[in-house]
Q: What sequence folds into this?
């Protein structure tokens, strides 16, 4: 089994339990080094201090049962040094639960809330839910960008986590988003099959670009409406790469409205007149079959009122 222990002291060598097979190395290390920021995890991997079976490994490496993970000594603040999330923040997330059973729960994550802590963020959705439910085992299945709202799944059992993450990796989930793209997308339907390469800039900021050396990535855009000369679309993604929709939309020449990283600054300034104060990207639905529970799941989150208001103003 994976050993638990306090950070600090000497080098630890931890054997991976069978039920951890397929987990990303960075997520495994976050569990071992409680309270460690993700930037620290990336750094100790990049410098070769973390090893899998004696070999250097990247943060997104997948681990297997029986692997030996070398974990270097690190200095972390005591858990008590970190302020607990506010009661109001925890209550807000509890109200955002749109589905729950014994295997998983689904949040309608608000825009502005990170999926997890790190990079200067003390508490993300998973930390707040754990604080709100101290007696439960809760594990983040996937991530949404901080400014993206919508369906976020948290597993309540290890068996469900492993199966859900496998479905995410292997294309076993139907994932649909709603987005407003800048400008008029001429074709009613268009697919973008363009590999994406991720890089981490100094300071820990993640940037993604279309690059032949990147990972296969496929997105399907379907126009729903064309309010105010822009394109309101549904996006189905067959893969789940970091910033996939945002970079594929930029690649089309029609970036996501309100995107400060990959978007059109001038268009974003104009859309503020219609009340747009955030990224117009919403994870609207996830559909999948879970063998663990024997259930077919259809998880939905309605378009937030502040985004619906933007569409109404543009149409008017």
A:
């Amino acid at each position: 089994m994976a050993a638990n222990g306090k950070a600090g002291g000497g080098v630890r060598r931890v054997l991976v339990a069978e039920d951890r097979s397929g987990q990303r190395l960075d997520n495994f290390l976050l569990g071992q080094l409680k309270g460690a920021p993700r930037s620290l995890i990336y750094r100790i991997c990049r410098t070769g201090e973390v090893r899998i079976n004696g070999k250097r490994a990247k943060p997104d490496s997948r681990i297997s049962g029986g692997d030996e993970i070398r974990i270097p000594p690190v200095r972390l603040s005591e858990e008590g040094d970190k302020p607990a999330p506010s009661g109001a923040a925890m209550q807000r997330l509890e109200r955002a639960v749109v589905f729950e059973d014994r295997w998983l729960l689904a949040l309608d994550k608000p825009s502005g809330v990170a999926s997890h802590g790190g990079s200067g963020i003390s508490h993300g959705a998973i930390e707040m839910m754990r604080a709100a439910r101290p007696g439960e085992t809760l594990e983040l299945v996937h991530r949404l960008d901080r400014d993206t709202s919508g369906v976020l799944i948290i597993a309540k059992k290890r068996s469900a986590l492993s199966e859900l993450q496998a479905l995410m990796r292997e294309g076993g989930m139907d994932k649909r988003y709603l987005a407003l793209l800048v400008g008029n997308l001429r074709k009613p339907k268009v697919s973008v099959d363009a590999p994406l390469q991720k890089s981490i800039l100094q300071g820990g900021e993640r940037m993604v670009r279309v690059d032949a050396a990147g990972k296969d990535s496929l997105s399907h855009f379907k126009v729903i409406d064309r309010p105010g000369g822009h394109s309101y679309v549904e996006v189905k993604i067959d893969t789940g790469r970091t910033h996939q929709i945002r970079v594929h939309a930029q690649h089309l020449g029609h970036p996501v409205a309100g995107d400060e990283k990959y978007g059109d600054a001038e268009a974003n300034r104009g859309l503020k007149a219609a009340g747009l104060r955030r990224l117009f990207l919403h994870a609207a639905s996830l559909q999948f079959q879970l063998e663990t529970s024997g259930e077919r799941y259809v998880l939905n989150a309605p378009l937030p009122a502040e985004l619906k208001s933007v569409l109404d103003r543009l149409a008017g």
